[in-house]
Thioesterase domain-containing protein (Mobilicoccus caccae), 130 residues
Amino acid sequence: MTDFTAHLGIQAASPDDTDRPGRDAGKALTVTGEHLNRNGTLHGGVMATMLDTVMGDAVRSALEEGQDTATVSMTVTYLGPAKEGDELRASAEIRKRGSSLVLTEADLVRPEDDTAIAHAVGTFTVLSSD
């Protein structure tokens, strides 16, 4: 986990981040007052960061030694609000992988009532350290 995501309070949802290559089993966040926008609901930028992080980790789980990844594009569809105190979970999975681009999807939900908060589709590039 990076310093930025740790600063936001985003954590691995379980001790095992990935249960198989190409999938991230989840990131978790408890919404605090610092995460809220002017309307008193979770800021969309926090949601986008959480979704980007979980998708990037799903891609990293399927890479070979010496490879890394970076986000090329991401579309987030906001489906509902979250409020202070809500426990949220994000999960992601690779949908298609080419030689240099990877398409992923992610969902952000409130597990207590299975409410969908946001959905994202992301394209990531595969980088080589060579």
